[in-house]
Amino acid sequence: MKAAPASQKRLLDLAEVDSVLDRLAHRRRTLPELAEIDELAARVARLATQVIAAETEAGDLAREQSKAESDVDSVRVRVERDQKRLDSGQVSSPKDLASLQSEIASLTRRQGDLEEVVLEIMERRETADGQVVKLSAERDELAAARAAAEDRRDAAFAEIDKELGEVKTKRSGVAADVPADLLSLYEKLREQFGVGAAMLQGGRCLGCRTSLSIADVNRIKAAPHDEVIRCEECRRILVRTPESGL
């Protein structure tokens, strides 16, 4: 391939612009906020699951407490009813009187037992409700931290994207100075190796950092100035400049 020396040297400007684009793209991909957001999102999801479990437990205990309190009320009503019968003097038979007193005593014990059950459930429910409040607060705090990290990420994206737009505009201007066939080769090599062209400096390829052999240096010296030279080691386009040591 043939190309004017000035066009070949323009490839170095293009490679420099492309290196800036690569750095910006890498910076965009590796923003610290991205890892932070992923970690916070995972923690928020775990806490959300824990909150649901805690809310379910608290709800179950609330229903259990309601049932236990209903049982207490039912027994209390029976005790009050029997006590009224006893106090009214309607029961005159000694046997029936003893039976009624025994039932009242039994119901009173039953009421006491049920009230203890209610107290125990209330304690468990209080603990469960406290856990719901605690986990919900942690979840909300982490969600707020994630939202703040997303804001920082978006601000960084906007800054990087603005710079990317400016550099891409500059690249278009540089690429317009390179002949189509040479540009096509450069783009192909850049896709393969990350860098499509490198300077030959002091007999050394700055693309792969390999020092050329004497035979290669002599071959390049003998080549016409408009011939497009490739590094034998990395196959990138070697651009000759006054610093090439030829």
TrEMBL record:
<keyword id="KW-0175">Coiled coil</keyword>
<protein>
    <recommendedName>
        <fullName>C4-type zinc ribbon domain-containing protein</fullName>
    </recommendedName>
</protein>
<feature type="coiled-coil region">
    <location>
        <begin position="97"/>
        <end position="152"/>
    </location>
</feature>
<feature type="domain" description="CT398-like coiled coil hairpin">
    <location>
        <begin position="14"/>
        <end position="194"/>
    </location>
</feature>
<dbReference type="Pfam" id="PF24481">
    <property type="entry name" value="CT398_CC"/>
</dbReference>
<dbReference type="Pfam" id="PF02591">
    <property type="entry name" value="Zn_ribbon_9"/>
</dbReference>
<dbReference type="InterPro" id="IPR056003">
    <property type="entry name" value="CT398_CC_hairpin"/>
</dbReference>
<feature type="domain" description="C4-type zinc ribbon">
    <location>
        <begin position="204"/>
        <end position="238"/>
    </location>
</feature>
<dbReference type="InterPro" id="IPR003743">
    <property type="entry name" value="Zf-RING_7"/>
</dbReference>
<dbReference type="InterPro" id="IPR052376">
    <property type="entry name" value="Oxidative_Scav/Glycosyltrans"/>
</dbReference>
